[in-house]
């Protein structure tokens, strides 16, 4: 791999030393992941409880219209992600990964607490909807910075030759956050009536999330720093100018994220609503299906990470793109036409197994594309832009197409983005070629 002298001096930054004990690596990964779990629990608590609090903030209209409004605010949170990706990526590349990750989890704590105590439309009118939007924007800013920095941190701390395995814990903890949000909702559904959930029960997950964020904040203060001060102070480190020296890599991150995020949110946060609104499944049953599927999904991430260490990222991503190019329409059609929870579980799990080809190496795949001085920014900013445009709008687009009577068109939209993934995968370097994570000074 050729790197110019200027870029090398400005952007090269060592990862964890080769002599770092395995126990220290594992501890650092667990510390980083604790905050990741909390951040994503808070973010997805909104998606899973929206079906209950939508009438409290948007009282007029039918159920689909109310969900459209809450999905619109969910999408708005995504559009703060590019700002978060830029801001926290710059902080991480210029002042260290640790500082960036501490600030992001603190911001998420504030956003969740704000939602937990918000007055409803009945008390303050349209101000309720406006404040809900503000809280989601703060959460979007936080998560926008979390992804790139935490992915960079995990890849830098990981042992060479096992990066796929260790890097898989990045998305495993994102899934864990989703899973915990679903489980909390399932527990609330079992002990509270529907009226109680709509009146006050939906606030409980946000209170739990804000407390968890405070715990993660304390834990993250003890993190091991992977960046080096002498390289962070170079003029190109953490700058857009330094990032744009890698246009091919930026386009690959955008392509992978656009398709990957659309698929991920289709089969996770939107899937519960899809089973309720389209397959007419009971809400409790849909939550149980998603809980079981997400649990298995989370547990298999390290296995797919290990697979990537054996077969290479390129081959694994080709398998991912091909799977969904051929399987999206049949799988979504089958889920939407069954009320049998076991059949639905089987098809959702099949889709999530296919997703694992990507999710297990998502952060690592992108981190390997950039030199260390612009790595957090290079991963975080283009990811946030594509994630906002395609992942954040997944629910809204799906519900809009359903409201227009063309729900099947959404399946083909997802299929088209799977083709984009396949094309990007074919453009990746082979498994034997060195990456920027290998080209470091120890």
What is the topological layout?
Elements: H1 5-11, H2 22-57, H3 63-78, H4 81-95, H5 97-116, H6 121-124, H7 126-157, H8 163-191, H9 194-199, H10 204-220, H11 229-232, H12 240-243, H13 247-267, H14 269-277, H15 283-311, H16 313-336, H17 341-359, H18 362-367, H19 375-391, H20 394-403, H21 407-426
Which properties best describe this structure?
442 residues, mainly alpha, Growth Hormone, Chain: A, 21 helices, globular, disordered N terminus
Structural features, described:
It is a single chain. By secondary structure, the protein is an all-alpha fold. The protein has a single domain, classed as MFS general substrate transporter like domains (Growth Hormone, Chain: A). Helix content is 78%, strand content 0%. Helix 2 packs parallel to helix 8 and helix 13 packs across helix 19. The protein starts with a helix and ends in a 16-residue tail after the last helix.
Please summarize what this structure is.
The chain is mainly α. Helices cover 78% and strands 0% of the residues. It has 21 helices and no strands.
The number of helical elements comes to 21
The chain-level mean pLDDT equals: 82
CATH homologous superfamily assignment: MFS general substrate transporter like domains
**Euclidean distance between termini CA atoms:** 18 Å
């Amino acid at each position: 791999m050729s790197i110019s002298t200027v870029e090398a001096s400005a952007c090269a930054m060592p990862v964890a030393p080769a002599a770092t004990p395995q126990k220290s690596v594992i501890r650092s990964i667990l510390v980083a992941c604790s905050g990741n779990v909390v951040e994503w629990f808070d973010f997805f608590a909104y998606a899973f409880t929206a079906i209950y609090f939508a009438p409290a903030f948007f009282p007029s209209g039918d159920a689909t219209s109310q969900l459209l409004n809450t999905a619109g605010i969910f999408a708005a949170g995504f559009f703060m992600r590019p700002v978060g990706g830029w801001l926290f990526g710059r902080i991480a590349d210029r002042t260290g990964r640790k500082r960036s990750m501490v600030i992001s989890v603190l911001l998420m704590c504030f956003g969740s607490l704000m939602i937990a105590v918000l007055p409803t439309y009945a008390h303050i009118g349209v101000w309720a909807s406006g404040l809900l939007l503000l809280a989601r924007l703060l959460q979007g800013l936080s998560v926008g910075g979390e992804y790139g920095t935490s992915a960079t941190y995990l890849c830098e701390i990981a042992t060479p030759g096992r990066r796929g395995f260790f890097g898989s814990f990045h998305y495993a903890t994102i899934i864990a956050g989703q899973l915990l949000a679903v489980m909390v909702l399932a527990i609330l559904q079992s002990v509270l009536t529907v009226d109680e959930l709509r009146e006050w029960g939906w606030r409980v997950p946000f209170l739990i999330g804000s407390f968890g964020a405070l715990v993660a904040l304390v834990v993250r203060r003890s993190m091991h720093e992977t960046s080096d001060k002498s390289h962070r102070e170079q003029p190109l480190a953490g700058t857009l100018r330094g990032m744009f020296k890698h246009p091919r890599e930026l386009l690959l991150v955008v392509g992978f994220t656009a398709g990957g995020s659309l698929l991920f949110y289709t089969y996770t946060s939107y899937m519960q609503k899809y089973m309720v609104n389209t397959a007419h499944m009971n809400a409790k049953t849909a939550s149980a299906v998603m809980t079981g599927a997400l649990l298995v999904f989370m547990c298999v991430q390290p296995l797919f990470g290990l697979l990537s260490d054996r077969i290479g990222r390129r081959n694994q991503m080709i398998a991912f793109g091909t799977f969904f190019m051929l399987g999206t329409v049949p799988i979504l059609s089958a889920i939407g036409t069954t009320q049998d929870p076991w059949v639905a579980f089987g098809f959702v799990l099949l889709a999530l197994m296919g997703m694992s080809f990507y999710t297990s190496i998502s952060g690592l795949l992108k981190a390997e594309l950039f030199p260390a001085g612009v790595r957090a920014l290079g991963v975080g900013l283009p990811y946030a832009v594509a994630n906002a445009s395609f992942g954040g709008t997944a629910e809204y687009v799906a519900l809009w197409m359903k409201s227009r009577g063309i729900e099947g068109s959404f399946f083909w939209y997802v299929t088209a983005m799977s083709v984009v993934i396949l094309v990007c995968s074919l453009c990746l370097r082979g498994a034997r070629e060195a990456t920027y994570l290998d080209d470091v000074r120890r």
